[in-house]
Design a protein that fits this description.
A hairpin with a 2-residue loop joins strand 1 and strand 2 (135-144). The radius of gyration is 27 Å and the shape is elongated. It has 6 helices and 4 strands. The protein has helices at 2-15, 19-27, 32-50, 57-66, 73-83, 161-174, and strands at 122-132, 135-144, 149-156, 183-186. It folds into 2 domains: 29-89; 90-205, Nucleotidyltransferase, domain 5. The chain has a 4-stranded mixed β-sheet. The longest helix has 19 residues, at 32-50.
Length: 205
């Protein structure tokens, strides 16, 4: 009891309040504003962590509003600053895509009508770049537009043809019950990456 009294006395001195005022503060219930602030703090921290600590205030703001919160970007930014959370801002990226319009590209066999009404009829290929702690990497994905799911992916520090082929191998392994031929469509055109009419002949066209 004496030790507890010493602690309270010290707290009162440090806070520069009276003993009675300290007990009033101790028994006071948190205000609605405090409860909301704690709730926002938890959500901001969760959305930031769920994005692998990539999202900044604009994307977290979008997630909060989608979750039903009425909040401003300024409040989100201040909350992140107070919690010590920092998003990863993309740096200016040099142009790597050089399109030769005189070059011959495969004909668009589906005329941009991706979903034909069934699985494994058309697969869509895409490449994007991601910033990591170790530098920029390329992510190649293969998506089935009917299910809107990524069925194959690969990551590498380069953007050569085998990056796409690795993603296709994963897709073909996952979709083992695919038809003999599947249309593979992509819009990218790189010096080292060219869309192909066929990859692993007899599987994709």
């Amino acid at each position: 009891a004496e030790k507890s009294n010493f602690t309270i006395t010290r707290m009162v001195r440090l806070l520069e309040v009276s003993r009675s005022g300290y007990y009033v503060w101790l028994d006071r219930k948190p205000s609605d504003r405090m409860i909301r602030r704690e709730g926002i703090d938890q959500k901001v921290a969760w959305f930031h962590g769920d994005s692998d600590e990539v999202y900044g205030s604009p994307r977290i703001l979008a997630d909060l509003r989608a979750d039903g919160e009425t909040i401003s970007r300024k409040t989100v930014a201040k909350t992140m600053q107070r919690l010590g959370l920092v998003g990863i801002c993309p740096k200016k990226w040099r142009t790597t895509t050089i399109i030769d319009h005189a070059d011959a590209y495969p004909v668009d066999a589906v005329k941009r009508q991706w979903d034909t009404g069934a699985l494994n009829q058309v697969w869509i290929g895409d490449i994007t770049y991601l910033r990591t702690w170790e530098g920029w990497v390329y992510l190649a994905t293969v998506t089935d537009p009917h299910s809107r799911r990524v069925i194959g992916w690969a990551i590498a520090a380069h953007m050569r043809t085998d990056l796409i082929e690795d993603a296709l191998v994963m897709a073909m392994t996952l979709r083992g019950d695919r038809p003999a031929q599947v249309i593979f469509h992509s819009d990218y055109a790189e010096d080292d990456v060219k869309p192909r009419n066929r990859v692993d002949a007899g599987c994709l066209q």
